[in-house]
Amino acid sequence: MKKFILALSIFVLGLTSVAQAQEFGVYRITIKNLTKGQFITPPLIAIHDSAYKLFTLGDPASPGLQVLAKDGATALLQAELGAVPSVYNIVAGTAATAPAGGESEVFFAGATTVDLSIVAMLASTNDAFMGGRGLSLNLQVGQQNETFLKVYDAGAEDNIEACIYIPGTPCTGNDSDTETNEGFVHPHPGLAFNGDLTPLQHAFASTVAKVTILRVE
Questions:
Q1: pLDDT for the residue numbered 44
Q2: Rounded to whole angstroms, how far apart are CA atoms 213 and 201?
Q3: Among residues 86, 68, 77, 89, which one has the least CA distance to residue 152?
């Protein structure tokens, strides 16, 4: 862990030499899963200016966000973000976050004047994702802030809750059913239990995760 933070610190020093007016830091983001039985897939984190919106309620999700929300895959969304001038850094997590209080961590570097957005799929759903937008990195070393993240529907796939379309337990499906999707991002209504999922295990509230951002360097 110390070697990893040192490498990030060296990266920050290199950035600082390029742009002395900016203050850069090394951060640790911790995701705590507040659901009973939903795994949260490895997250994708974007560091960007304050004007950028990774998603907007009422608008269609980008193709990359749709894929993330349906399958948990981040490659297409990473490519989309890499083409946006106002996105300065993209970090993909490598670990899923287990339910019932499980935690995972991601380290990254960024300027204190920019914002962070984060998205990840709720694995036992058709196209639900946790999302946080515009989280501030304006922290002093050792300072942290906490944010509770809500769950959204990407509008990419109808919520029929059939295992052939759901990658998470108890399912292993990766088919897509996009013929009757809603077509826009909206707050997730919760599971209807009209398919292969069970209330005691897979139900979730509107708030599904707590995110803590700590500046470590």
A1: 98
A2: 29
A3: 68
Separation CA 44–CA 175 (nearest Å): 22
Q: Yes or no: say if 140 and 169 are a contact pair by the CB < 8 Å rule.
A: no
Q: Which amino acid is at 49?
A: D
Per-residue pLDDT of 57-92, as tens digits, reads 999 999 999 999 999 999 999 999 999 999 999 999
Total residues found in the chain within this entry? 217
Residue with the two structure tokens 């862990």: 1
Could you report the per-residue pLDDT of 96-140, keeping only the tens digit for each? Answer: 999 999 999 999 999 999 999 999 999 999 999 999 999 999 999
What is the pTM for the complete model shown? 0.89
By C-alpha distance, which of 119, 123, 116, 122 is closest to 74? 119
Domains of the chain: 2-215 (2.60.40.2130)
Which residues lie below 8 Å from residue 159, measured CB to CB, with a gap of 6+? 125, 126, 127, 153, 189, 191, 192
Report H helices in the chain. 2-18, 63-71, 75-82, 199-202
Q: How many CA atoms lie within 13 A of 169 on its CB side?
A: 11
17 pLDDT higher than 70:
no
The answer to whether the beta carbons of residues 96 and 123 sit under 8 Å apart is yes
Place of tokens 């950028």: 52
